[in-house]
Amino acid sequence: MERKRFEKKTAIVTGAGKGIGYEIAKSLLLEGATVILNDLDYELSEKSAAALSEFGTCLAFAGDVSDPDFNREIVDFAVARTKTLDIVLANAGITLFGSFLEYQPKDLYQVLQVNIGGAFFLAQSAGKYFISNNKKGSILFTSSVTGHQAHKDLAAYGMTKAAVELLAKHLVLELSPYGINVNAIAPGATLTERTLEDPEYVKTWANLTPIGTAAYPTDIAKVALFLVSEDARHITGQTIVVDGGWTSVSPSPF
Ligand SMILES: NC(=O)c1ccc[n+]([C@@H]2O[C@H](COP(=O)([O-])OP(=O)(O)OC[C@H]3O[C@@H](n4cnc5c(N)ncnc54)[C@H](O)[C@@H]3O)[C@@H](O)[C@H]2O)c1
Q1: Residue 197 and residue 191: Cα distance in Å, rounded?
Q2: Strands across the sheet with 239-242, in order?
Q3: Could you read off the pLDDT of 72-105 as tens digits, one per residue?
Q4: What is the CA radius of gyration of the chain?
Q5: How far is the CA of 130 from the centre of ligand 1 (A)?
Q6: Do 194 and 151 meet the contact criterion of CB atoms below 8 Å apart?
């Protein structure tokens, strides 16, 4: 029988109550991993982990990734409950739209704390565990095409996504000597519950995306799994853009 890629491995996925993170958690479970599913929303964490338990061991751990202490606690929880930790996906991110000239300090600091702080401190906590337990772990940040190109009302968000990509590069210096790789994935428009709240989203992005459709969460999950798998062991400090060609031709091929 073929061995599953992530058997005997534990992965943390943040912001996974729905959307891209949920799909990544499901894909990891289907490939044999034990998953610690985080969401800010306690009920959603519990409900999503229970739903995914039909595919494997999925444990809920609710909390706010913008709190550095939380990022230590989730690593401790993973290790206490599963005796290991091999992979962390800092996926939770928030998008607070607003024009640059009107943007409010409280919104900026919230976006920075969730999108950058959440990635930074989860990587730090996991990195410490990996190093002290001699584990060649994998870390993946969820970036965005807005970290590559300007997008209306997304200066703050886009800046945080560029930051996590550069963070992956910087961590190469400190973590490569221990065999830990750190990468980022930058999705383009993706059809999640959140983006589908806009009734025009599917049509707009089908027109704007050279490949003719926005991404499905499975398109993102497949690449994410590759980046945290043994096959990508020699890839570190990199970002893979998964955008159906949008950043090659943006703003619009039409
Ligand atoms: N959907 C897209 O089109 C798209 C495109 C590019 C990048 N991204 C990035 O992908 C990631 C996932 O996006 P999505 O659209 O699937 O997410 P989403 O907006 O649907 O949110 C997923 C979950 O994250 C949780 N969350 C929010 N703040 C949190 C916090 N502080 N701590 C823990 N959980 C928190 C929410 O409760 C929600 O259930 C994000 O980093 C996002 O920036 C998404």
Answers
A1: 10
A2: 58-60, 34-37, 10-13, 87-90, 138-142, 181-187, 239-242
A3: 999 999 999 999 999 999 999 999 999 999 999 9
A4: 17
A5: 26
A6: no
Domain range summary for the chain, segments of one domain joined by +: 10-243
Exactly one of 45, 143, 144, 250 is catalytic; name it: 143
The residue whose C-alpha atom lies closest to atom 10 belonging to ligand 1 is 142
Which residue puts its alpha carbon closest to atom 43 of ligand 1?
Answer: 93
Give the C-alpha separation, 231 to 99, whole Å: 41
- The predicted pLDDT at position 247 comes to 94
Active site residue 135: no
- Whether 143 sits among the annotated catalytic residues: the reply is yes
Class of residue 2 by CB neighbours under 10 A (exposed 0-12, middle 13-18, buried 19+): exposed
Ligand 1 centre to CA of 179 (Å) is: 28
CA distance 160 to 134: 31
**pLDDT confidence of residue 253:** 61
Contacts of 180 (CB under 8 A, 6+ apart): 127, 130, 131, 135, 136, 137, 138, 139, 171
Topology classification of domain 10-243: Rossmann fold (3.40.50)
Cα Dmax for the chain: 59
Lookup: tokens for 199: 């009734």
CB atoms within 10 A of CB 181: 23
Beta bridge partners of 16: none
Instruction: Tell how far the Cα of 7 is from the centroid of ligand 1, in angstroms.
Output: 26
Q: Which residue has the tokens 């996590």?
A: 164
Ligand 1, from 20, 154, 164: best to mutate by most atoms within 8 Å of Cβ? 20
Q: What is the mean pLDDT of the chain?
A: 96
